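Narrative of activities, Objective 1.

The group set out to show that a structural description can be obtained from nothing but a protein's sequence at a throughput compatible with the screening campaign. Below is one input-output pair from the validation batch, recorded exactly as produced.
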Amino acid sequence: MNQSANKMPTFGAVIIGDEILSGKRTDKHFSWLAGVMAARGLRLSWVEYLGDDRARLASVFARTRAAGDVVFSFGGIGNTPDDHTRQAAATAFTVPLVLHPDAEQEIRARFADDITPQRLLLGTFPEGSEIIPNPFNRIPGFMMHRHYFVPGFPQMAHPMLEWVLDTYYSGYFLQSPDVDRAILLTGERAYESALLDLMERIVAQYPDLKLFSLPSLTEDGVRRHLELGVTGAADRVEQALGEIIAEVDRRQLAWSYRPN
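Output recorded for this entry:
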């Protein structure tokens, strides 16, 4: 099937771990994923951070499956008592956990004579899933219903999901990735509510673009500037930004181009 002829799917990420929510560890997945997707002309629509709570994870995966989203899930697929992602996915997809034969082959190749039943648990996935190869240590992840489950370790997870993107979603890659351009407005009249009519007009005239408005404040709360711009195909962005600048000039507001 030619994916490029189909509607762009909604991409989301689930980042799992009590250690992230408690602040013991810093998330390294979101910024990386946003970057590698942007380089391919793709964009995340949502991200959820969740703790190691099996029932909550199962509820989220059931919801995202029903929505038809493409979901990248980081963490919790190990074999220790605080790892719940495999079990939650099985509950969400209403299938049992089984030892995947391809995962078993990879794990046996990894550990050879040191194989144990505990290590084979690492290949116990929801029935009907497929494996995601792990070039770091051969312990695979799994995928099912456009959900892709990888470990929490960046050195494993990141090449695994790059493989997923390049293998299953290259049909959606853009030849010319989206760009964003913006201006910085300054002065007492450079505030969002005073420019709502302009923003609404640009959104209506350019439904294929995303408009953004980002106020900036100094540490003591004084308005510094308002960043106003659009994201999308380069030619359309230039056209929309030109209309924004023309209206800003008409209103005699001070502005400069945002450094790229």
